[in-house]
Amino acid sequence: MYCQKCGKEINESDAFCPECGAPKTESTEKQASPEQQTACTPASNIFAAQKFQMNWYKALIYAILFLSAIANLINSIKYFTGIIYGDQATAKSVYEQFAALKPLDILTGCVLLGIAVLAIVTRFALAKFKKSGPVLLYAVYLSNIIYTFVYTIAASSIAKTNLFNYSTIISVIISVVMLFANYKYFTKRKELFVK
Q1: What is the pLDDT along the chain (195 residues), one digit of tens a residue?
Q2: CB-neighbour burial class of residue 107 (10 A; exposed 0-12, middle 13-18, buried 19+)
Q3: Are 25 and 46 contacting, i.e. CB atoms less than 8 angstroms apart?
Q4: Which of 32, 46, 74, 138 lies in disulfide reach of 36, CB 3.0 to 4.6 Å?
Q5: C-alpha to C-alpha distances, 21 to 32, 34, 51, 76, 141, nearest whole angstrom
Q6: Cα–Cα distance between 114 and 89 in angstroms, integer?
Q7: Bridge-partner residues for 2, per DSSP?
Q8: Separation of alpha carbons 89 and 15, rounded Å
């Protein structure tokens, strides 16, 4: 049974809620189980949110998606300016040797800027428990995976050398693992994201 005031579970032997101290009432005992209450909207259903650990969700909306957006914004600036290769002199010599890299880098900067915006939009969709929130999160991870592969393949063909290195492969593996972990996490909590 659950406390009518705070929603915490109360042992049948307790006369008061151990969380808020409210007295156990007769109607508390007749209250439906949390499984029967899932038809309510998440905003009004305190039991649905308490049924799950939401630590990862909170980390995503309060830190990870903001940091992802900042990192993608910084990287987009590096690609726009060419300092992804080091200083301006190095960038100039790279672009003189491989002229086709400059438009590819500008396009990559635009893609990373788009991913940064997508991360912020995703953050607000998740924070408002929008149904599209988890799907947008998957899109953030998928876009990072796709951009990494496309850029590395295109840059490798322009430079005529294999640019797949350990950091690229590890980055893709981490994104794939995070994609599947988040899919599993949000599938278990899909009843919360219905707006």
Answers
A1: 777 777 777 777 776 677 666 677 754 444 445 455 444 454 444 555 567 889 999 999 999 999 999 999 999 999 999 999 999 999 999 999 999 999 999 999 999 999 999 999 999 999 999 999 999 999 999 999 999 999 999 999 999 999 999 999 999 999 999 999 999 999 999 999 988
A2: middle
A3: no
A4: 32
A5: 21, 21, 21, 53, 44
A6: 28
A7: 9
A8: 76
Give the amino acid at 79: Y
Place of tokens 């635009």: 110
The structure tokens 């876009």 sit at 143
- Which pair of structure tokens corresponds to residue 153? 């393949």
